[in-house]
Amino acid sequence: MDIPKPGAPVRGSKSGQPIMALLDLLGRSWAMGIVWHLYAGPNTFRGLQDYCESISPTTLNTRLKELRDCNLIKRTLEGYALTEYGQELYELLEPMGGWARHRWAKSFTHNNEKKQAK
């Protein structure tokens, strides 16, 4: 599978709009989880494999290569770490994570309670 690049066709966008290329990349298994986890600091391949639980070494290698090629992570003496762009991306995603947990996810509970009350 090719690495999503702005300007090239990606999932959901024949024109390769930058946001669609980014969402295509982050939508791949464990890509966003790796970015999320590395915000806490550098981690080794083994540490990331433990964090990702069921990920195969091949898939983890692929995701790490994709994220490196897209300038979101880098290899350091301590392991893998976010680049400046990776840190900025996390800081943009983190509020969305809070919204998803505290607002959106609760709407499912609220809607189910309404349905059960009928």
TrEMBL record:
UniProt keyword annotations, A-Z: DNA-binding, Transcription, Transcription regulation
InterPro entries associated with the record: HTH_HxlR, WH-like_DNA-bd_sf, WH_DNA-bd_sf
Positions of the HTH hxlR-type domain: 17-108
Pfam families registered for this protein in UniProt: HxlR (PF01638)
Protein name: Winged helix-turn-helix transcriptional regulator
Taxonomy of the source species: Bacteria, Pseudomonadati, Bacteroidota, Flavobacteriia, Flavobacteriales
